[in-house]
Amino acid sequence: MKSDRLLSVLLLLQTRGRVPAHELAERLEVSVRTIYRDVDALSAAGVPVYAERGRHGGIALLDGYRTDVTGLTADESRALFVLAAQGAHAALGLDAAIGSALRKVMAALPAPHRPAAELTRRRILVDATRWERGPGAGLPVDHLETLQDAVFADRRLRVRYVHSGADAEREYTLDAYGLVSKAGVWYLVADRDGQPRLFRADRVRAARLTDEPVRRRPGVELADVWELLKRQVERRTGGIEVTARVRRDRFGRFLRLHAGALTELVDEGAEGSGGRAGVQGGWGRAGGVGDGGGAGEWVAVRLVCEEVRAARVLLAFSDAVEVLSPPEVREELARAAAAVSDLYEGPQ
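Above: the chain's sequence. Below: its structure in token form.
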């Protein structure tokens, strides 16, 4: 479209200065004559553009002329650079297109907005894909604003953190590279004692900025550390695979809470069962979710717990969830249930 081409000409002239007409024509895949017509159109619209012919000529804007083509505010500019990293754009074959679009936006931004936009691009990532095996949607994050402040202020961060399955808080001093949203769960990517670590933001119990400048490893960016940590998580053989069964009338709620930990669903009640349905393949049909029962009282599932103690979360479903294996998880849940029973059966 002509309007898109005129905008492209204007952005190129703002970022490059004087540009030969033949170079503009090559970049925009039109004839030189069309470029001169575009220059006339821009001039008629009030843009101070001119053409100089000759060996050292070209097309240029008057010195000092700039326009905020986008009309974006500083916050809007930053928001545009919080992008999915190697996610949806790659899957759609649009990585090159999004990169080109962002370069155009960066060129069009007012000069004062550019550093904030560039810093956001380097410090915030959004990865929309779920872990191959791992936690699902996160809990509300109380200290996300403080974590973000540390990321942008380049200051060291002091946090109190609770690891999965642990009761006690641990206190750490962290050198943050940035924040990552992974399938709705926010993570802080940081060095702890010079080693890369991943911290779920919803497990941060307290956070404050220190007066010390951040101590990132030279030449290392957020995207580099994230890729390393992500590969470690996805390759990790740790964790315990638990086989359980869930009462069908409670399965909808169970799925909402624990879908991210599920690795396999086996519909014990469906006709011709014995067949298995992978997590990625049609929960509704395989598990009878929302079907009001009918095909069997129980739905069998397999899920991963980070450690034996972490399986205690299943006790929230009382007798609507039964762990079938491994034995050590059954024993852990029996101990926990007995402790609760003793608490209420004893004298008040």
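The longest helix spans residues 327-345.
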